[in-house]
Amino acid sequence: MMIPDLSTQYLGMKLKNPLVASAGPLTGELDSLRQLEDAGASAAVLPSLFEEQIEHDEIEIHKFFEFQAFPNAESLNNFPEMPDFDSYGPDDYLEKLRSAKEAVSIPVIGSLNGWSDGGWIRYAEEIEEAGADALELNVYFVPTDPTITAAGVEKQYVDLVAAVRQSISIPLAVKIGPNFSSLPNFAQRLADAGADGLVLFNRYLESDIDLETLEYHPDLVLSNRHEARTPIRWIGILRDQLDISLAATSGVQRADGIIKLLLAGADITMMASILLMKGPEFLGTLLEEVNQWLIEYECASVEQLKGSMSQGNYPNPSALKRANYMRALKNYTPQY
Ligand SMILES: Cc1cc2nc3c(=O)[nH]c(=O)nc-3n(C[C@H](O)[C@H](O)[C@H](O)COP(=O)(O)O)c2cc1C
């Protein structure tokens, strides 16, 4: 019987298969990280160190020194508290990263999450020094000011990527959302600025309104498998245009979804929600199903599968443009 070669290249690393644990609570705890490795995960992305965590830590240090200088300064009592970040600062993050590197032998990818061009960027270097095999830079910004242009937002992303690229020598992946007016142009500029890979796509958590308290509150809803269609489409479109790694995230929940993302051109597929629902061992079930699929379809390797249905390799490239959309709307029949 043919034994398919599941290995795949990602960010210049040879991974043993395309199933990677995405940033989230399971990769942040050593026990579940080990369970993910045992289940077959080929790499893991640690939860992010957030710009806000770094800045809060620096504000706290500043506050301490101000307090020493002006012990009676009343304004210090009114200093805003950020209890969420009190117990987990950048030093804890770096310590966790070092422990993760000791606990598992798969590549460990650090993650930095921010937007502004402040001092938090220097933590990219710290993450490299702590032993990360690569860095995932998660850039997330919500423009609410009408004077901010789309071009200005994109420039900020590109400048950030260039600044982080300059400060580290490990591979750099950039995690972005899907909402850009011309994603192929933007993606190319991120690659030109030094991204070795793109992680497509970040999944934004929208606030909901609590009708009892009349407050906005973040309501974390896990993904569903249909959400993989957005990365399937865009990875299919981008695969032949970009000479960098592409990772798929959002809605990766079943073996068929993983196969589809590989066909579109993903180098790896990342999972968070499904493993939070079913446990780290479920990654092993998916890995076995992917392996079985390759055997059944006589596909010798993941490398052979990758991108074989990208836009450029598909006989009808317009399928990824408007045509299918119009056909789907015209042919829809009511369900009742
Ligand atoms: C509870 C939770 C925590 C997460 N934390 C992070 C994080 O720290 N950094 C990050 O880049 N993504 C984070 N993510 C996003 C996931 O890594 C992933 O990209 C996203 O959930 C989409 O994949 P999924 O459909 O498999 O959940 C988190 C997701 C969840 C559900």
List keywords for this structure.
single chain, alpha/beta, TIM Barrel, two-stranded antiparallel ribbon, binds flavin mononucleotide
Task: Describe the secondary-structure layout.
Layout: E1 8-10, E2 13-15, E3 19-21, H1 30-39, E4 44-45, E5 49-50, H2 51-69, H3 83-86, H4 90-103, E6 108-114, H5 123-129, E7 134-139, H6 150-167, E8 172-176, H7 183-192, E9 197-200, E10 207-210, E11 215-218, H8 229-238, E12 245-248, H9 255-264, E13 268-271, H10 273-278, H11 282-296, H12 302-305, H13 323-330
Parallel strand pairs: 3-13, 4-6, 5-6, 6-7, 7-8, 8-9, 9-12, 12-13
Antiparallel strand pairs: 1-2, 10-11
Bound molecules: flavin mononucleotide (FMN).
The site of flavin mononucleotide has 25 residues, from strand 6 and helix 10.
Largest sheet: 9 strands, parallel
Q: Would you list the SSEs in sequence order as H and E?
A: EEEHEEHHHEHEHEHEEEHEHEHHHH
Radius of gyration: 22 Å
The total count of strands amounts to 13
Instruction: Count structural domains.
Output: 1
Structural class: alpha/beta
Low-confidence stretches: 61-86
At the first level of CATH, the class is: Alpha Beta
**Small molecules bound:** flavin mononucleotide
CATH topology: TIM Barrel
- In whole angstroms, the N-to-C terminal distance is 48 Å
Beta-strand content bin: 15-25%
Mean pLDDT: 90
Percent of residues in helices comes to 40-55%
CATH architecture, by name, is Alpha-Beta Barrel
